[in-house]
User: What shape does this take?
Amino acid sequence: MKPPVFEYERPPNLRAALDALSKHGGKAKLLAGGHSLIPLLNLRLFKGRNFGIGVFVNVLMGFALFGTVYLLPQYLGQVQRYNAEQIGNVLAWTGLPQLLLIPLVPLLMTRVDARYIGALGLGLVFYVVQLVTEREAMRTEPGQELDNG
Assistant: This one.
């Protein structure tokens, strides 16, 4: 939201601030320290469909990355009692499809709309994470020791 045109005063002391308030009557407003007079982001950008969808998809991808890079290893280590090597073996299955499909993306982009490719990729990331999580949750009960053999 962009502010309307206004007059800005910075009084040096309390008496000058009270004088400025009484001079402008009910139209005067106080700004606490630390407020920016010009917003950093123009929220009207979200009215554009493409921008809004792009931000939404990036937020979803951020959740997916946070889940796979931080939360899933924490879960496997603390709840399932995996060691670092076992966690690495599980997470390799989330990265292997990406490694195999990345060389095909430029060829695919010449034939298919990039939005569909992005949606398919995001869907595959969520699907693979779901499969890995379910597989590991069924493997052992919480607190049960793993057979390292």
User: Anything to note?
Assistant: The chain is about 60% helix and 0% strand. The helical segments are 14-24, 49-78, 84-101, 105-109, 114-139. Residues 94 and 128 are 6 Å apart (CA to CA). Residues 44-139 form one domain.
